[in-house]
Amino acid sequence: xxxxxxxxxxxxxxxxxxxxxxxxxxxxxxxxxxxxxxxxxxxxxxxxxxxxxxxxxxxxxxxxxxxxxxxxxxxxxxxxxxxxxxxxxxxxxxxxxxxxxxxxxxxxxxxxxxxxxxxxxxxx
Length: 124
Fold this sequence. Notes:
mainly alpha, Rossmann fold, 6% strand
């Protein structure tokens, strides 16, 4: 947590890391820990907070869980990206072709598409 004799601290570094990649797991370690410091670390996105001296097996367990968590997040994003593109509209009518054309123009984002009225068009 305390990186040098100056004003730099681990929370600043944690915030910088999370601004670059919010999914990367960060385990904070401190020899000057207190409850407020641990809570602040977790609120700023730390995966875990460990107090020195630490048990090696416990730290290795946290690292293993962090790697597994990152792997699951990555896999989940891949599934979410494939979810929408894995469905096709059935039909070749003018309306269906128009909808297909409009869908192709939508970039893959976190935006949802909601139909206000029930439709008779099926997804396969």
